[in-house]
Each structure stands twice: as C-alpha cells, then as structure tokens.
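Incident log, support desk, overnight shift.

02:14 A customer reports that sequence design results differ from what the structure should imply. Their input is reproduced verbatim below. On-call engineer (initials T.W.) acknowledged and began investigating.
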C-alpha cells in the first residue's frame, strides 16, 4: 500500500510591501522631528533657513503619501473601524497627553478636543480628508476644486476648531495623492529624474537661504487667513498658489531621490506615526535645556542630528510595544460584529 503525499495547494502570491514608500515616510519623519527640535533656535540664521525650507514640503510630503495610500478608502464597516482606531482614538489620547506638559511646565490645563493642539492637527485633518475621499473620486477635476478651496480658505478667518485653516489650505496635497498612480512614482525613479530631483532640492535650499528672512513664517504653517498675515486676498492667493506649487515640486524632488530598494530604515518607515505622535513630548522637554551652546551653527547641527536619532528610536519595536496602547489602540471590544449589507 502506497502512501500518497498530500497535495500542495498553491495560494495566490500576496503583494509585497513596496519599500519605496516606507523609505520616503522614514526620511520625511526625520525632517519633521528635526524641524520641530530647531524651531526654538530660529534666531540662528541657518536654523531659520533650514526650518523654512523643510516646512515648505515635509508635511505636504506626508499628506501626498497619505492621499495615495487612501485611494481605496470606502465607507465600509471595516474601513470605518480602522479610521476610528487609527486616527480618532489616538487623537483623543494625544490631545490629553499633550495637555500634561502644559500643566506641568506652565500650570495651565486647557483641553479642547475640537481645537487640535500642537501636532495633533494632522490626525484631525487626515480624519476629515479620508472621510472626503469618495467625494473627490467622483469629481472630474478634483485637484482644481481642491486648489480653489485652498485659496478661498485664505480669504476668511476660519475657526480653529477642526483645524479648518490647515485642513482646507493643505487639502490639494491630499487630493494630489489620491490622483497619483504607481506609474507616476515609476517615472520618478528614472536616473535623469533622480538627478533633476537632487538639483531641485539643492536649488530650493539655496533659495530658502536667500529669502527666509523676508518671508513671514506663518505662510509655511497654513494657520491663518491672508489679512491676519498682513496682505490683501489677491496677494495672499497668489502667495498660497506659489506655496502649493513649490510644495508639490519639492515633494516630487524628494521622492525622486528616495531609495526604492530595501534599506536599514525601511522597517522603521512602517511605524512613522509612532515617531510623529511621540516626538512632541521629547521636544517640549528638550527645549527647556537649550542654552547658548545650541544657538550656534554647530549646536543647530547637533540638535538636527539628534532629531534623526530620535525619529529612528521612536520607530523601533521596543518603543512601539510600550506605546501601541496609545498610537494603535486595540478597539475590537468597542465594536459590534461586522454587519454585511442586506441583499
């Protein structure tokens, strides 16, 4: 009697995770963390120039990538639950956590869940952008509409609740991400485009160094209306349009020089939300220890390098294990069983 070996069942291969996007997210989060760390050192010209340059595109880069990775968002039960557990609940948790440094250092307890504090605005805005995804996918010219809304948002003093100024002002970058396709990123990986991207970033840094002192910082923060910054609506709209174009160009240039192969930091790029949400707590403490040593060019370089190390550390498995309760809370206990639509 012969024993027949069990038949192997062939399963369809699963799509491999593209390290390109993880690399881009990790490199971007290092800019975010370092940018926040040197924010209090802007009396040093090189720090102010670096801050200005980085803020032109570091959050637009995250927003474009978020839009691209949100292309398949629907109002299905599973997607809605993920939206709640990955954005809404962490937003509430970190709004409460970030109230503690203010209470300890300034004796001020101020909690407003509708008015995002510090860096939590991104969670609020991303929540609203993602909810709007199906709407943008139905429009014929979604980017044109998004740019129009962005420019119009600068003509009114919008309330701080729901981070309306940033949500509408930076909206075109999210919609741009929704419109992108894999072939667009493949174009950026061509050798000539990579060279052009590097040249563009160097030229952008040079321009930032030349003009940073004469441009109000509020323009790159997207927090206020035109008249609050001191210009009329026509001038403000033209400046905003220029910032949108510059941001998109620098995002493309940055992505063009991003490695597409797997690197030592690709795995860390899968957990950039940890670095984003946690680094602010370190920044608020670190700023208290800045002295004359930090207000020099070597000091700015040292603080920036510390930002890179901090970003990497906050993405590591041990930190993720300790803080997953806040960044990626398990919320299955709060949901009912998945309900399928009636047929």
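02:41 Re-run completed on a clean worker. Output:
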């Amino acid at each position: 009697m012969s024993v027949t070996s069990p038949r192997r069942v062939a399963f369809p291969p699963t799509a491999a995770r593209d390290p390109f996007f993880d690399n881009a997210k990790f490199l971007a989060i290092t800019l975010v963390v370092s940018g926040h760390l040197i924010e209090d050192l802007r009396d040093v010209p090189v720090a102010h120039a670096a801050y200005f340059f980085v803020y032109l595109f570091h959050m637009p880069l995250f927003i474009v990538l978020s839009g691209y990775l949100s292309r398949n968002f629907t109002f299905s039960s599973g997607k809605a639950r993920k939206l709640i557990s990955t954005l809404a609940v962490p937003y509430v948790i970190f709004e409460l956590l970030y109230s503690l440094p203010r209470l300890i250092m300034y004796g001020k307890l101020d909690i407003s869940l509708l008015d995002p504090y510090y860096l939590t605005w991104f969670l609020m805005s991303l929540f609203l952008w993602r909810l709007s995804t199906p709407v943008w996918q139905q429009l014929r010219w979604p980017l044109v509409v998004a740019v129009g809304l962005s420019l119009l948002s600068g003509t009114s003093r919008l309330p701080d609740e729901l981070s309306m100024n940033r949500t509408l002002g930076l909206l075109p970058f999210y919609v741009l991400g929704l419109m992108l396709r894999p072939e667009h990123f493949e174009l950026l990986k061509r050798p000539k485009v990579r060279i052009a991207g590097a040249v563009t970033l160097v030229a952008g840094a040079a321009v930032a160094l030349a003009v940073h002192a004469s441009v109000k910082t509020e323009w790159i923060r997207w927090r206020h209306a035109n008249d609050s910054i001191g210009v009329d609506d026509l001038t403000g709209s033209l400046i905003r349009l220029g910032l949108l174009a510059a941001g998109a160009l620098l995002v493309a240039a940055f992505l063009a020089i991003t490695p597409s192969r797997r690197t030592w930091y690709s795995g860390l790029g899968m957990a950039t939300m940890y670095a984003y949400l946690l680094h602010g707590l370190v920044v608020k403490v670190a700023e208290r220890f800045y002295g004359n040593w930090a207000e020099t060019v070597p000091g700015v370089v040292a603080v920036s390098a510390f930002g890179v190390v901090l970003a990497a550390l906050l993405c590591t498995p041990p930190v993720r294990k300790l803080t997953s309760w806040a960044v990626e809370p398990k919320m299955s206990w709060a949901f009912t069983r998945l309900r399928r639509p009636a047929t």
